[in-house]
What we know:
Shape: globular
Amino acid sequence: MLLVDNRAGSNDLILPLQKLGLDVESTRLDFGDVAFEGRGKKGIAVTIGIEFKTLQEFVQALRSERLQGYQLPGMRGTKSHPGPYDYSYLLVEGELLYDRTGQLMQRKRFSLMPLPGRMTVGELLKRKQVLHLCGGLNPIFTSCRKDTLQEILALYRCWTDQDLDKHKSHLAIYEAPPLIPISDFRRTVKTFP
């Protein structure tokens, strides 16, 4: 079951997630906008939290330091007080547009206008990396609501379909192709003991 915060911002996700076939409960979360329980290694229950923001909200939260000073510690916890989530994600929705100087922009009718907060794309991307590397907040960027919903669905399925240590899509044995194509006959003979 997916718990979705019913306050402004995240309550717009409830009905579309239900239409995707997910069991969604509207509730009030202290931290994060979406939460659920997943299957960690050896089936041990783990908690997953997703903080959802539009691109403009993300810039505002960085500028006000609410994300770093309140929301991140609330989701991840501190050394003396663990947070509610074992794994935390930051899901940012919006087109990443910027001008030739790197200033973040937004679409307004038929033109581009500066995004409030006066932030460059370089600063935004660097801060995103630091939140991931030093804060444990795994970033996901989407360009539209349809993609946002698919990312939430994929995260939910990834964490609930099977135990974390049972996933295999990150494992493979790579064999470089030969310079000269090998015939089917030689390929078959090569497999004999």
